Amino acid sequence: MIINHNMMAMNTHRQLGINSANGQKSIEKLSSGMRINRAGDDAAGLAISEKMRAQVRGLNQASRNAQDGISLIQTAEGALQESQSILQRMRELAVQSSNDTNVSVDRSEIQKEVDQLSQELTRISDTTEFNTQKLLDGDFQGKFHIGANEGQNVSLSINEMGAEALGVQGKAYEAQEVVGATNIEVTSNTGNALTIEFVSSSDVNNAAVTSTEAKLSDDGSTITITMEQEAGDGTTAGSVTGTTEAKIKAALDAVADEAGITVAVKDSAALGTSNITTAPGNTVLALNEDVEGSKDKGINVSSQPAASSSITTLQSAIEKVSGERSKLGAMQNRLEHTIKNLDTSAENLQASEARVRDVDMAKEMMTFTKNNILQQAAQSMLAQANQAPQGVLQLLR
Question: In terms of domains, do 287 and 315 share one?
Fold first, then answer.
């Protein structure tokens, strides 16, 4: 027998330490509900569960994003609902004014309400907003991020829904003369000059335009404009302007770059000075005389023909608003389905993450009970091992 080293006590002490450490781990898992509390518990499982956790949180936020998108859409659609009610009332008034049982005074009163309703349409368009963003002024171009990863967006644009955009309010110009447009064919390799002929008249109803073939050569540096005036009962004055179409752009540029363009006016003493301008781009060449004066002009119900014509205009505006509301409704339904899908995906992914990271309480309780019993047994055996060396004293008696 030896007494300097109690091997039984040392072995029992080591086992007691192991059981005590295992018991502490079981207590930690049972108290947290997590099988993995630190990387040392399961390094691979921790990495997998963290990626799943990031996806779950991203899906949950995407669901909230979609909810916010629905709120924005509902705000815009609510405003459009009221706009449509206004248009319905304006159409009703136009129908009323189309009846010749109304006299001028009656139609004047109806016109006052129509004008106020038109202004309210514009006010709604200008002031409807969500989180300080204007929704109905035609500038809204939004993206809703409805996924947990990059680039998972849906886009939404809302057209302008003011009275002018709907065609029920605008500008009417009172002109001295009105002329139409003429089509001009221009080539860059034949002919000597560009000739434009049109007819202008101070009588709006009788104004007309005649067209002629015109050709411009590379070396031709003169554009000739010939104006002929029909009989009219007003004053003729103004200027002629034009913009180039793609077909004449190259020819005009070739001349303008090298030698400039000279404009000459013939037979135009009654018209005064006229000019023609060129501009790049795919635009149509048009000649228009100047107009004088303008005033606000919206739906006109001051006469039977005007009121009757306004019915069609208002019906078109109602259909535009209906189309925009339908687009918003379709997007709202899409986002509602998106939310359901996101919530389902997050739920399933959360279940997968739980299987990796969460602790099985029943199994861990069984492990804890085992470690607790082993710990108590080790403590008892350690006491017995510590008593063993005392047997040497019996030999000394």
Answer: no
